Amino acid sequence: MARLKDLYKSKIIPELIKEFNYKNPMAVPRMEKIVISMGIGKATQDKKFLELARGDLMMISGQSPIICKAKKSVSNFKVRAGDKTGLKVTLRGVRMYEFMDRLISLAIPRVRDFRGLNPKSFDGKGNYSMGLTEQTVFPEIDASKVEFQQGMNITFATTANNDEEAKKMLELLGMPFRKTEADG
């Protein structure tokens, strides 16, 4: 079993039940999925950027990403409808917990000038989104072989009813949120 999943079952569920007074352990919020997406604007000019990013995302996530196509044509960006412009991976189950563990313990500490994740990036329904500006913060990626820096968006989908419950669960899992003035 993944280390974070074991921590969630043994320590986090009882703590959340105590704090939010859940009547049933099944009502406790849990991680549903993690979606990692990359927008590759350079792929419209040269297809090799898409393949390089695909290889990096595959190494980071442990599964093959799907290729996303543009829905509309945008002449300012030289994009036509149907052009391949992005990649996306949805992680669930054990892979999701293992990715989250690597993100929290290995990748986030390697981010330059890191002062904590923005606690305001919740969507109002208990889901959290964050962005990374480069893929080299992951130890799987060899920085000397990277031809171009590629950012990514990471969305944590939870079963929480509100942002407060989701934030508490993610904090207990180890997400390093920035302290606000209200927190003291």
Short account of what is shown:
The chain has 184 residues and is α+β, with helices and mostly antiparallel strands. The protein has helices spanning 3-20, 48-61, 93-107, 163-173, and strands at residues 31-39, 66-69, 84-91, 128-132, 152-158.
Folded structure, characterized:
With 184 residues, this protein is of the alpha+beta class. 32% of the residues lie in helices and 18% in strands. Strands 2-3-1-5-4 form a five-stranded antiparallel sheet. Helix 1 crosses helix 4. The longest helix is centred in the first third of the chain and has 18 residues.
Show the helix and strand layout.
Layout (H helix, E strand, L loop, with lengths): L2 H18 L10 E9 L8 H14 L4 E4 L14 E8 L1 H15 L20 E5 L19 E7 L4 H11 L11
Antiparallel strand pairs: 1-3, 1-5, 2-3, 4-5
Helix pairs in contact: 1-4
Name the descriptors:
about 180 residues, alpha+beta, 50s Ribosomal Protein L5, Chain: A, 5-stranded antiparallel sheet, elongated
Counting H and I runs of at least 4 residues, what is the number of helices?
A: 4
Order of helices and strands: HEHEEHEEH
First-last Cα distance: 36 Å
Mean pLDDT: 88
The major sheet is characterized as: 5 strands, antiparallel
Look at the helices and sheets and give the structural class: alpha+beta
Assigned CATH architecture? 2-Layer Sandwich
CATH class: Alpha Beta
Percent of residues in helices = 25-40%
What fraction of the residues are assigned to beta strands by DSSP? 15-25%
The gross shape turns out to be elongated
Strand segment count? 5
- How big is the Rg? 18 Å
Strand arrangement, major sheet: 2-3-1-5-4
By CATH, the topology is 50s Ribosomal Protein L5, Chain: A
CATH superfamily: Ribosomal protein L5
- Quickly count the domains: 1
As residue ranges, the low-confidence spans are: none
